[in-house]
Amino acid sequence: MKIAVIGAGAAGLAALRHCVSGTYGDQVVCYEKTDQIGGTWVYREQTGFDRYGLPIHTSMYKSLRANLPKEVMGYPDFLIPEGPVSYPTRTQILDFLNIYCDHFKLRPYIRLLHHVELVEPVAGNRKWSVKVKDFQNDAVAIESFDAVMVCNGHYFEPMIPNIPGQNIFTGKQIHSHDYRVPDFFNGKKVVVMGAGPSGMDLALEISKNANRVILSHHLTETIDTVFPENVVQKGDVVELTEREVVFADGTKEQVDVVFYCTGYKYSFPFLAESCGVRVDSNMVTHLWKHLVCIENPTLALIGLPFYVCAFSMFDLQVRFVLRHWHGERQFPAQADMLRSEAEEAARRAERGLQKRHFHMMGPEQEHYYSDLANVAGITPLPPVLSKLHNESSMRFLKDLVHFREDRYKIIDDYNFVQLSR
Ligand code: FAD
């Protein structure tokens, strides 16, 4: 098969690795719009737009250390090497991705500075036309493929809630996508909106510079972790005035900065409507197993689920897709795939989850991984990954300030130990 891979982040590299591994003898081209591999792990001081007029992709900030131990952050058969700490820095992860890329000799297949502008099914849906802008040669080309793996990430298009008064607020408003270093917050009063991993991490980071940090979230209970004294928790922000934020309980606070840590939108600006993929309230649909486009199954979207062991899941998803594309497993009938998606949506809705939580895994990840492995008949991920992921997420919530001092060691497919700090 001739396969296009869009993006050379951790997902695109996993896709490329299995496409070129020799198992199937596929031809593959990986298009990467920036000048480097590594995706969101590439730190760039610049925010806004790059020299080619494209929005900056990465959301990486300078001080970032992973919020998961390296023991769960490698690929299934290519682990992050042993070291004295479990929680790697962003540079260590980027170095690791470069080592992975070189180890599997992937660079010859990667076309840097190639921006995919349009993907559409052609020839009665039997082929894909991929239109690419080559920034180096300032040229546009259209190539034809049998299949496409979309690996463009989902932490680049900021989600900013609509709040009355946003247009009259005279302070600064910034999204975490554009955050790099804390200096900007020196001596300021800041409301951080959102208590996901970024909101929690960044509230802590800027508390060293800011005068006062208000962590606003809609969790029904106060987050039970020890924050520095200048960090307080409040409910949702419901309105902004010229200088104040108004909270759901009616209280008001004067602030200098509204810092949106409100997450990201799934976005596939290059997929033509005829591809059959839509984003509905941040649920990507219609997909089989969060992965395969039901209307055109030779299109796969790698990496959508979140709160997962990301690199291992990418590897598993790619192997799943290739087994099907190469006929070792058959896709179910379209109606059955649609039913499976609808049933999962209904199960999640029954549990009170909104559409935007459709791809959230967390405690469900083990079930998702084993389902993929069983259905495709491929080597499963060791269950210890999900176990350690869930343990680490719990420690993150309980002890935000110190959890990165924890050290873990995986001892077999099911067990890990926590080493002394
Ligand atoms: P990306 O890394 O975003 O890569 C996508 C690539 O596609 C980019 O290189 C982009 O330039 C390219 N691209 C996009 N559109 C096009 C196009 N049209 N044409 C050509 N190329 C294109 N995960 C963890 O496991 N542990 C962590 O501690 C962790 N911390 C994180 C911290 C932050 C601040 C963020 C934002 C994410 C974090 N993640 C973490 C999640 C992280 O995104 C994943 O681990 C993983 O790196 C995502 O890989 P990806 O390849 O799917 O996407």
UniProtKB/TrEMBL annotation:
Enzyme class: oxidoreductase
GO molecular function, one term: N,N-dimethylaniline monooxygenase activity
Protein's recorded name: Flavin-containing monooxygenase
Record SUPFAM superfamilies: FAD/NAD(P)-binding domain
EC id: 1.-.-.-
Keyword Translocase: no
Sorted UniProt keywords: FAD, Flavoprotein, Monooxygenase, NADP, Oxidoreductase
InterPro entries per the UniProt record, alphabetical: FAD/NAD-bd_sf (IPR036188), Flavin_mOase (IPR000960), Flavin_mOase-like (IPR020946), FMO-like (IPR050346)
Cofactor requirement: FAD
Cytoplasm keyword on record: no
Family statement drawn from the similarity comment of this UniProt entry: Belongs to the FMO family.
